[in-house]
Amino acid sequence: MLWIIPAFVSAIGVALQSVYIKKNTFHFNEMIVTWSVLAFSSILYLPLLFISNKPDLSTTFWIAVIARLFIDSIGFTFYIKGLKEAPISLVMPMVSIVPILLIIVSFIINHLFPTPLGILGIIITVFGIYYLNFDHDTKNILSPFIALKNNRGVQYVLIFAVSQAFVTSLAKLGIDKSNLLFYTSFYQLFWAVCFLPVAYFANPKEFRSIFNVRDLKRLFPVGGLDALQVLAQNIAFVLTLPVYVQSVQNTSILFASFFGWYFFKEKLEKHVIPTILIVAGIILLTIVQK
Question: How many CA atoms lie within 13 A of 200 on its CB side?
C-alpha cells in the first residue's frame, strides 16, 4: 500500500498546478504555458538523468515515447485551454473519467478488467459526472449534455481526459522498458525540446518576451509542481497498477475545487455532491480492481 503516498502527493501537486496554470493563462498563451511546464520540470529532472542507469532502449520503448509525445502534446494543451475557459471546480471533475477509460486501455496492454464491484464503481463515477452538469433550475434530464455541449472549457478537459488514458498506459510501458529515473527525466526533456518550436511559432514575440525575471518567476511554480507530481506519479506506477494510481490521483478533483473557490472565488456548493459521488466511485474502483 506504499503506492498510496506518492499517488496522493501527485494529486495535491496536480490540484495546485491547476491553480498556477489558470493564473498564468491570464498572462500567456496556452502554448507558452505548456512549454514552460515542460522546460522547468525537465531542468529540475536533469540530475536524475545523470545519476540514472542508462538502459538499452528497445523499439517498444521508442514507440511508447513517440506515441505518448503526440497524444500528450495535444491533450495537455487542451487541458490548459480548458482551465483558461472555465472554472477549475467545473472542469476538473471531467478528469475523473480517466480510470474508466483506462480500464479499457489497460485491458489491451495489461490484461486488466474490472470485477462486478468495479462495474458498480464505474456507474457511481459516471452518475457523479452526470450530476455535476445537471441543471437544478430547469430539472431537464438532458441538461448535463446541454452543459457539456455549451461549455467549451469542459469540452477541452474532456479531450484531455480521453488522452490521459492512453498517456498513462504508455508511460507505464515506457517505465517498464527502461527504469523509473531514466524515463521520468528523459521523457520530460525530450518533450520540452520537441515542443519548443510549437511554442515559439505560436507567438514568437510573446515567447521571446517571457525571458525576464518577472515572467520566469510567474512560470517557474507551474514547472516545479509538475516535476513533483509527475515523479510521484511514476513512483506509484512502479509500485502498483496504473488504474490504482490514476483513481487515487483523481482526488485532485476535491483539492482543485477547494483551491478554485479559495483563489478565484468560484462557486463550490453545486459541485460538492457530484464531486463526492465521483470520488466515491473512484475509491470503489481502487479497492476492487484486480
Answer: 9
